[in-house]
Structures are given as structure tokens and as C-alpha cells.
Amino acid sequence: MSALDLDETHDPARTSWVDVDERSDFPIQNLPFAIFSIDGRTPRIGVAVGGRIVDMRALAEAGHLDDSIDRSVLCSSSLNAMMSVTRPRRRALRRRLSDLLRNGGDPVLREMPGALCDTRDAKLHLPAVVGDYVDFYSSLEHASNLGRLFRPQGEPLLPNWRWIPIGYHGRSASIVPSGTDIRRPCGQRKPPDADAPIFGPSARLDIELELGFFAGPGNELGASIPIDRAREHIFGCVLVNDWSARDIQAWEYQPLGPFLGKSFATTISPWVVTLEALEPFRVPGPTQTPPPLSYLAQREPENYAIALAVDLSDARMRERGMASATISRTSFAAMYWSQAQQLAHASSNGAAVAAGDLFASGTVSGSLDGTQGSLIELTENGTRPLHLPDGGERRFLEDGDEVTLRGRCERAGYRSIGFGCARGTVLPALPQSAARGDAYGELAQER
Ligand code: CA
Fold first, then answer.
1. Residue 125 falls in the annotated catalytic set
2. Distance 242 CA to ligand 1 centre (A)
3. pTM (2 decimals)?
4. Is residue 177 packed enough to be buried (19+ CB in 10 Å), middle (13-18) or exposed (0-12)?
5. Is the pLDDT of residue 433 over 90?
6. From the CA of 168, how far away is ligand 1's center (Å)?
7. What separation in Å is there between the alpha carbon of 136 and the centre of ligand 1?
């Protein structure tokens, strides 16, 4: 096992002249990227430190960044071009940013106050134009729990699961940034005692707590990404909520897998935490039995120690000013299939991966009570409701529920960093006529 690949930007003693709260997710050791705008102006690339955003375009135009990354990349309105930059150049940029922001570093940024803004004044957008979106199914506990619920008579794990990082292609056009409201989907479902399916609003709307990665430079069509080089092809990570309509999913998923039960909305956190920032938290994953085939055999630790949590509040709790309830706490470190294995597998047939493609992990679940990343697991398919602090019960999501995912890396000897959050509030389903499409006109008029 080789040592971690660390440099001065990971030094826990390094501090910024920007005021950073001790509990902030964004100390100088993190430096995540997002796309932000102020007052409706053209979106641009920003880097977070504490509660402030560094305007990368302003820095680039002032000539304060290394010329090894083309200025048009730094002045873009999405991160796709930045994600396609090679890892050594991305590292050089990180070192430069860290030096501009550290106490005792290059003072030029301090002398251009217009290059920093307050996060509260900014609107955060999707970080990249997501060309392709894949969702894996890489937690052994989640796959086993769902197998038991969906196929109570059979083996929980299908025979291929321990050999293949199972995944499916999702809908990239339905990916939304944190803060976007989520409309309860309508769809076809078959109540257990009915002879025929019905169409209507999902009655079993759920969440899936996941971590996703944005692809970096990618590969040519016909080539593949070897597992030993997978990390060079990963730009960074975000929190992902793969909203799921369990009743639609249960009726439609065989034989081709998830479709409309998943494709109506996927929320991601806006700040992309780079793989360089995550390096101190890289850890070995669980032992894999049987050993994976050689193209999936990893020689280095490829998991990340990230504590994840899900908070839920209903409309009544928010009206009363009550804090949200944490309904799940789990760890990403125990995921069976790593991101490196996912990427090596996804490209093993020569499929092209492009910068800005999003790969989500699958629901992150542990084996203990309260460590599962979905309501269907936490409530045992709705049979054991969760109790909310205002006296309410939850089996599945109700209209008005607000769900917030959080993630934070902690390891002795290193400065903790975090992901911010991925939040969404459930809106009631559209009236049936509107959902069927005859209200296209009405919706257009609303806009
Ligand atoms: Ca999922």
C-alpha cells in the first residue's frame, strides 16, 4: 500500500486570512469548486473558503493564476472544461489558490476585495453540464436490504452482485442543484391487492443518500480507464439524493431495472470537493469476497472516510421553528465497490466517459439501525414508522417534507472538511390533468 499523496495544501496548521469558522465545511484545506452568479449576472467559477467565494474569473483576468490552465477554462460558466484538465495542472492550481488564501502567502488577492463575495449573496447553479449520468448500487447492505424487501422469497443478493459493480443509466436532464423543489411524481403502480395497475401520484416517495463523482479527463471511445489510473480521471465529489418512487419502481423494474421511478429528479450539492482535497481521507475498503476479476483489482486504498447524514423536517416543524431531525447517519468508507472500480468497470467495454459525467454510488447504508440511507430501509418498507420530534410519523415522504443530506470527512491529524448540503422540499403532485399534459398551456402561462 502506498502512502497518501499529500502536499502543503493539506497541512492542518495552514490557516486563511479569510475568517473561517471552526465548524465550517470549507477551511483552506478544502477549496471546493462551484458555479455561482450574483444579481442574475453570467454564472462563473467560484472556490469556497469559509463563507466567502473566490471569483476565479476575476483572478484569471487579473493574471494572478498560473498560465498552465487556459484562461477560457477559468472564465467558463460551467466546470466541464476545468474537469477535463489533467491532474498535475489541477494540483498546481490548488497550490496556487492555497497560497493566495493562506496567512503569510502571496498577498495579491487580499488587495482585490472585488474578487471575493459572500456566499449568502450568491446563487449556486449546477456545477457542470452533465452529459451522462450513471447510478451504481455499490453498498452490500443496501443491496441486501432491498433484495429482501423486493424479493422476499429469494436470495437477497443476485448472483452477479459480488462480481460486477451494478449500475444503470439515469436521466441527466433531471439533475438539479440543492434548493430546487421536488414535485411528487405521478406514475403507474400496481397496488398489491389490485388486478390492474393505476396511474396517479406516488404514495411511496423516498430518498437515497448517495455520494457521486464527476468524471475528469475521460477516455476515447473504444479505450478504457485502467483501475490504477482511475483517480486521475475523477475530478471531485458531491452529495446526491436519488429521489425514488418505490411504488412506481416496484412495478416497472423487472426485467430492465429502474426507469421512471427514479428519473423525475436527482438533487446534488453545488460544491464539488476535489479528489485532491479528499486525499487525506482515502482509506481501504472492505475485503472483497470473492476477489474481483483483475480489471477490478485495486492495489491501493480507494475508499474515502466520509460521514454522511440525512435530516428531515416537515412543514409543521419548520412553522414552529423546530430543528430538523437527523434520521440517518452512516459512513461512505464501508462501500463495497469503490469509485475506482466503478469507473474502471463503466469504461471496461470501451464506452466513452467525458468530463462532467456524473457517477453516483448507490444508496449508502450500514448494517446497524439508523445507518440506512433510504426510508424504505429505515422503516422496513413502511411497516415501522419513524417518529418525528413534533409527534408526526414517517413511512415515506409527505408533501412539504424537506430533506437535507450532509457529508463531512474527519480523520485524526487532518483538518476536517465537508460538502455543504443537498436539500430539496417535496411539492404536491400536479393535478392529474396537468400531469397528463393538457395543462401544458397553463404551465407555460405560469412562466
Ligand atoms: Ca440510487
1. no
2. 5
3. 0.96
4. buried
5. no
6. 9
7. 7
